[in-house]
Write the structure tokens for this entry.
Amino acid sequence: MNKIILAVVIAACLGTGFIAGRSQIAAPAPQEKPAERKVLYWYDPMVPDQRFDKPGKSPFMDMQLVPRYADEGQNDAGVAVSARQQQNLGMVTARVEKRPLGSAFSAFATVATDERGIQTIPAPADGVVEKLYVRAPQQWVKKGEPLAQLWIPQWTSAQQEYLAVRQLGDRELTLSARDRLALQFMPEGVIRSVERSGKPQTRLTLRAERAGYVVKLDVREGAQVARTQSLLELASLDPVWLVVDYPQSEARSLAPGSDIIATSASWPAEQFHGRVSELLPQLETATRTLRARIVLANPQQKLKPGMFLTVTQPQNEQQQPVIAMPEEALIETGSASRVLLATGEGHFQAVNVVTGRTSQGWTEVLSGLREGDRVVTSGQFLIDSEASLKSALPSPAAEKPAQAWQSTGVVKAITADSVTLAHQPVPALNWGAMTMDFVLKTPQPAIKPGDRVTFSFTLDDENGAVIERLTPQPEEKP
């Protein structure tokens, strides 16, 4: 009896386990529902620049609009680099920021004579140079120092006439005779000497009105000179001119009135301050440089014509901030300037930029970047050639090829870079049979209008439908 009860219990347990096992096997495992892809916009592949916010039929062609998903084309123009690869490559990024950018203008200048201060010493009347106190050009003279002594015999008759009229005591006649002496370029000091001595004064000593040096000496002792003839020229050393040569790329660095600082190897601990007087209009053809003229104070006359100085601009604390990036982030390719932009975690993209001036390790960015962008400042040597980023930097995943579609059609027209096809429907794109233009990557001289062809194409946001392969269909045998 006990054995029968035990057998029933075992059978019941086995039956329960069998049923539970069948129920576990029969119950399918729950499947995760795939996440829906986010659509950014819809577009017509033939007019990729036009975007639509909902699906439908294209207003340009007889075809359905194509969706652009958020996960498509992400970082297409860049490259993905893992954190470990970034560490191995020594990649460092820095932030693009707004900051005042001090001027980095620096150029060489030559000291020249201020020609606006050159004084010409003429002969007041016809005469003879009796004595010359200045013997050679570049001779330094002090203020009031004698330069030359002239004998002017033609003054004798006019002075004698003045003395005779003066003895008559007629005031008006005397003043008239005195004015005639002044009209003959007779200095006031000579006329007074005539009045004091009562005798004609035919010798005149010319003196320097200010300190300077002789720029030009045109006469010698014993030479006969004519009225208004130039005898010599005097120039001052305070102020002096600085003539600066600077490249065309720095054309906007200087303007009339700009302050400058000049330094000289002769006086290393001293700075000379001046201001741009004018920008010379003519470009130097030999050196392809622009020139500017600077007026520089030289009270102690330390600067001499012909000396070389280094010219810079003072730091302007009120300078407006500009968008700037670290100088080492810039990659010069010869045809363009670009940087490696960090577009996300581990993703980088080459961006062409237009730069301005560089100062203190920072370069002004005129276009191509915005404040807050991060650029690679170290490790970007791998893309300093014209190679693309994807071939220059290692990528953990291979680039996904663009999807291509196939169809057949008849060539209606063909040029070197495009072909017009009357093609059959493309069900994968919801395209019906239509006639449309395709972009040709390479010319197809063997294809002519009227040919029946088989072709494959891809869709590109920039160019639209692009032919990847175009081959003629073989003729059907009867």
In short: Helices lie at 2-26, 83-89, 155-168, 171-183, 188-197, 389-392. The radius of gyration is 47 Å. The chain is about 15% helix and 40% strand.
